[in-house]
Write a structure and sequence with these properties.
By secondary structure, the chain is an alpha/beta fold. The protein has 14 helices and 14 strands. Strands 1-8-7-6-5-2-3-4 form an 8-stranded parallel beta sheet. Strand 10, helix 11 and strand 11 form a beta-alpha-beta unit.
Length: 359
């Protein structure tokens, strides 16, 4: 059992150093990224407790919370240039400016590479307390081919075994499973701080009528929802196949896929498999997302690898039953969950059928 804290606030309060200013860092800060949501949550919680918080990122497409300063250090938003940006960040003028800024900060919380390296340098040069906040639960390079496979392997190494991770003052993970995995790679003790859904996130909820009108849903229709990027890591193709198998003789059942398309070839595969019973919405704002959670009868995901799985927590907040593999940490914290053993497709389809039948 790992040392645990219920929130980032309790963790920071227990750091022996006198912490007043905090830099929270991630590769991107957007409406669509799971890690960005965690950064937003941490910034909100810490700011409310009186800490001076900054967000540092390579690229940003959304505004920071009130009272939080946002610094954008990258130059590119599209593949492959953004990956090159990550690799070169510690050696660029932007990286040096970040390092200089860390002289003024008491604590740097690094989510992902390259801020793991930059945070480690800040610790060495300025004595800034450096925490690496881990998200990956396992390697995922088997989901990719060619150059993408090489990059996934390298990035996984840089966020697990790399010296910049191993020498952090503190290592944090979002679940027991993620903590155990990181310990196996670093040989270090890991602190667990679970993710949570900020109360301020869903203050407005789109009406049922608006959701049905916008996404062409009948009032009597059973809706299965999935939220996440359209990427091999999320295993969306398998979810579509499982849904079509389960609902082949069921009328009025629709799968709604909410998420941004990040890979052209994979997105093309998803569209080809989708059929009439699948809706692809792309990115939606929080009010619409809240309405979708509330309107949906079931939340389902075939993802095999998640650091936490925040959409499951969000669905649970709206009382939507969840169908998932038991390898997703958030699934174990959901009260109304239909769980299948990790990777057991037949069991997943049985759980999905049971959830749909109960709706």
């Amino acid at each position: 059992m790992h040392e645990q804290y219920p929130s980032v606030v309790e963790f920071v309060a227990d750091v022996p150093a006198d912490v007043r200013s905090i830099a929270i860092c991630g590769t991107s800060y957007s409406d669509t990224g799971g890690v960005a949501r965690v950064i937003e949550q941490q910034a909100l919680e810490l700011t409310r407790q009186g800490y001076d918080v900054e967000i540092h990122t390579l690229t940003a497409t959304t505004e920071p919370p009130d009272g939080v300063t946002l610094y954008e250090h990258g130059r590119f938003e599209t593949t492959p240039y953004k990956e090159i940006d990550k690799l070169l960040a510690p050696f660029t003028p932007s990286g040096w400016r970040f390092l200089s800024r860390m002289r003024e900060m008491d604590l740097v919380v690094a989510h992902r590479f390259p801020f793991s390296v930059l945070g480690s340098l800040a610790s060495l040069v300025h004595g800034t307390v450096y925490t690496f906040w881990s998200h990956p639960s396992q390697a995922s390079e088997d989901l990719f081919d060619g150059v993408a496979k090489l990059w996934a392997t390298l990035q996984h190494h840089l966020e697990t075994r790399n010296v910049a991770v191993r020498r952090a003052d503190y290592l944090c993970a979002v679940s027991e499973d993620s903590g155990a995995y990181l310990e196996s790679k670093t040989g270090r003790d890991v602190i667990v701080v679970p993710n949570s859904v900020p109360d301020s996130r869903f203050t407005s909820v789109a009406s049922r009528a608006e959701i049905e009108r916008r996404f062409d849903l009948d009032a009597s229709e059973t809706v299965v929802l999935h939220v996440g990027r359209l990427s091999p890591r999320k295993n969306v193709h398998e979810l579509i196949d499982a849904f079509r198998t389960v609902t082949s003789d069921v009328d009025d059942c629709t799968l709604v896929l909410v998420g941004k398309a990040t890979m052209d070839d994979y997105s093309r595969t998803i569209r080809e498999r989708a059929g009439d019973s699948v809706r692809l919405t792309g990115f939606v704002d929080d009010e619409t997302l809240a309405g979708l959670y509330e309107r949906s009868d079931v939340y389902a995901t075939c993802s095999l690898s998640e650091g936490w799985g925040l959409p499951l927590s969000e669905a649970d907040r709206f009382g939507t039953p969840v169908v998932a593999y038991d390898s997703i940490p958030a699934a174990t914290a959901v009260e109304d969950a239909f769980l299948a053993a990790d990777g057991d497709r037949a069991a997943f389809e049985e759980r999905l059928a049971a959830a749909i039948g109960r709706s």
